[in-house]
């Protein structure tokens, strides 16, 4: 599937989030895919308390686009998936994409919860359960799902779920490697193929190269 470019006067969109990848990263990758010009509005943690009351739900990220203020990261990603022709054509197809994205969210929440645990005893318990029980089964099932879908998470083709997954892996792998040796997707070849394919999309590849400079 080729990149769909949305013609917009620069910059007609802005993305507000903390000074880190986090929940805004899938949105950035989708904006890059669509070549949608936008400006970043980074919020530091020390001013967040004062800024929080100005947001729709007391949360970030926020995407301002087409005169609207959008919030909730996956709802924003779903919106971008729709306007970029990365969504399904029927309610059932969209369910399949949504289910895949919800599965990726479950993965993120488990790893982040483990990394943020402060109690040493609980940390050991959560780390052991994550590494030896949850991840092998969870990633094994997700890898099989990618195999069945010919290297995609849904519909046997590129959807916004693939881009969300690749972007989530991009920042989640850093969280994972601070607790465990090796990379998160080591041994899961079908999931690695998704990430590799997404990173090779010309618009995303160009954006990542610019981001790293």
TrEMBL record:
The UniProt record lists the EC number as 2.5.1.18
Q: Cross-referenced InterPro entries, in alphabetical order? A: Glutathione-S-Trfase_C-like, Glutathione-S-Trfase_C_sf, Glutathione_S-Trfase, Glutathione_S-Trfase_N, GST_C, GST_superfamily, Thioredoxin-like_sf
Under SUPFAM superfamilies, the record lists: GST C-terminal domain-like, Thioredoxin-like
User: Which CDD domains does this UniProt record tie to the protein?
Assistant: GST_C_Sigma_like, GST_N_Sigma_like
Q: Where is the GST C-terminal domain?
A: 90-213
Q: Which reaction equations make up its catalytic activity?
A: RX + glutathione = an S-substituted glutathione + a halide anion + H(+)
GO annotation (BP), single: glutathione metabolic process
Q: Which UniProt keywords apply?
A: Transferase
Molecular-function GO term, any one:
glutathione transferase activity
Domain GST N-terminal intervals: 11-88
Signal peptide boundaries: none
Top-level class of the enzyme under EC nomenclature = transferase
Matching PANTHER family, A to Z?
Answer: GLUTATHIONE S-TRANSFERASE, HEMATOPOIETIC PROSTAGLANDIN D SYNTHASE
Subunit note: Homodimer.
Family statement: Belongs to the GST superfamily. Sigma family.
Q: What is this protein called?
A: glutathione transferase
The organism that produces this protein has a lineage beginning with: Eukaryota, Metazoa, Ecdysozoa, Arthropoda, Hexapoda
